[in-house]
Amino acid sequence: MNNTRLITVVVPVYLSAKYVEKAVLSLVNQTYKYIEIVLVNDGSPDNSGDICDKLSKVYSNIIVIHQKNQGAAHAMYNGACYGTGRYLMFMDADDWLEPNTCELALKAILEHKCDLVFWYFYKEFESELYNYPPEDTLFTKTQRELFDIFDIK
How does pLDDT run along the chain (153 residues), one tens digit per residue? Predict the structure, then answer.
């Protein structure tokens, strides 16, 4: 794989000062290094936007967009429009990724010629850890098949 930024990761940021740095560092420290990170500060009233700006000064692959509060969907849309990668990924500001996540996602895309890649995740709630979906699940469906599964018209 060449050094073109194939993956753009869009992260909507709102009231995430406690989490956003861990999220961004999990992206910066990916084994697949050629990612573009678009942080969209959605008018957060805490210092999330300042943290995003600070991180963008340290890491050259981070772009920060500041907008008035319009909600996560609008922030994701704006980030997606701004990104330049061939493949688009979304991540919440209070999430983090295992170091090889982007590498494995890109590998799945290229091997299976996928339109969409999902992977399992863990959710921590009241000290309990839940796994969604089971770790051995790999979706290799076409876009139409996925739309049918998720009942998207």
Answer: 445 678 999 999 999 999 999 999 999 999 999 999 999 999 999 999 999 999 999 999 999 999 999 999 999 999 999 999 999 999 999 988 889 999 988 998 888 887 777 776 666 666 666 665 555 555 555 656 666 666 655
DSSP 84-100: --SEEEE--TT----TT
Beta bridge partners of 131: 122
Query: Measured between alpha carbons, how far is 35 from 103 in angstroms, rounded to an integer?
Result: 10
* Residue 9 backbone dihedrals phi, psi, to 5 degrees: -110, 120
**Short-list 29, 30, 28, 33, CA closest to 4:** 33
Calculate the alpha carbon distances from 124 to 9, 60, 127, 129, 131 in Å: 23, 32, 6, 5, 9
pTM for the whole thing?
A: 0.82
Cβ contact 35:115 at 8 Å: no
Give 5-72 as a DSSP string: --EEEEEEESS-TTTHHHHHHHHHT-SS--EEEEEEEES-SSTHHHHHHHHHHH-TTEEEEEE----H
